[in-house]
């Protein structure tokens, strides 16, 4: 789009409102359609997972909110747009995918070191070895 920032945002929200006319289409689904099908890179689908990413990476004060109200939804969108414009939608997708447990091993710097057989064997021997205890009669002293 060749419009100014304000007009671009207004245009995006118009698409969102038009999509939400359909039964079963809420704000998040409308944003998914806008981002992935209509190439609206300013669209940020927000769910609890994305909200947690925003709390952790963009603004920790968001964690004070107990649910994703329309105003919190807009705050999260605005945080992504401010930080990652003009590719905020793609940044959202990369952060979302990178945060999924299935992709954690592929994220650079987030690798878990494989446990060596020696460490595992040592741990297992501690679990299986009987504990040595000394029984004392009550009232007797140990020398």
TrEMBL record:
<protein>
    <recommendedName>
        <fullName>DNA-(apurinic or apyrimidinic site) lyase</fullName>
        <ecNumber>4.2.99.18</ecNumber>
    </recommendedName>
</protein>
<dbReference type="GO" id="GO:0005634">
    <property type="term" value="C:nucleus"/>
</dbReference>
<feature type="region of interest" description="Disordered">
    <location>
        <begin position="104"/>
        <end position="143"/>
    </location>
</feature>
<keyword id="KW-0378">Hydrolase</keyword>
<keyword id="KW-0456">Lyase</keyword>
<keyword id="KW-0234">DNA repair</keyword>
<comment type="similarity">
    <text>Belongs to the type-1 OGG1 family.</text>
</comment>
<feature type="compositionally biased region" description="Basic residues">
    <location>
        <begin position="114"/>
        <end position="143"/>
    </location>
</feature>
<keyword id="KW-0227">DNA damage</keyword>
<dbReference type="GO" id="GO:0140078">
    <property type="term" value="F:class I DNA-(apurinic or apyrimidinic site) endonuclease activity"/>
</dbReference>
<keyword id="KW-0511">Multifunctional enzyme</keyword>
<dbReference type="InterPro" id="IPR011257">
    <property type="entry name" value="DNA_glycosylase"/>
</dbReference>
<keyword id="KW-0539">Nucleus</keyword>
<dbReference type="GO" id="GO:0006285">
    <property type="term" value="P:base-excision repair, AP site formation"/>
</dbReference>
<dbReference type="InterPro" id="IPR023170">
    <property type="entry name" value="HhH_base_excis_C"/>
</dbReference>
<keyword id="KW-0326">Glycosidase</keyword>
<dbReference type="GO" id="GO:0034039">
    <property type="term" value="F:8-oxo-7,8-dihydroguanine DNA N-glycosylase activity"/>
</dbReference>
<dbReference type="InterPro" id="IPR052054">
    <property type="entry name" value="Oxidative_DNA_repair_enzyme"/>
</dbReference>
């Amino acid at each position: 789009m060749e419009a100014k920032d304000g007009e671009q945002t207004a245009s995006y929200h118009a698409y969102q409102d038009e999509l939400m006319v359909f039964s079963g289409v809420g704000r998040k689904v409308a944003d998914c359609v806008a981002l992935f099908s209509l190439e609206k890179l300013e669209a940020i689908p927000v769910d609890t997972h994305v909200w947690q990413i925003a709390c952790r990476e963009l603004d920790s004060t968001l964690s004070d909110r107990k649910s994703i109200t329309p105003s919190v939804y807009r705050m999260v969108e605005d945080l992504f747009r401010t930080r990652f414009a003009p590719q905020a939608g793609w940044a959202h997708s990369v952060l979302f995918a990178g945060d999924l447990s299935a992709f954690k091993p592929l994220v650079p710097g987030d690798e878990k070191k494989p446990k060596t057989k020696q460490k595992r064997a040592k741990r297992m021997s501690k679990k299986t070895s009987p504990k040595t205890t000394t029984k004392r009669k009550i009232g007797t002293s140990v020398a």
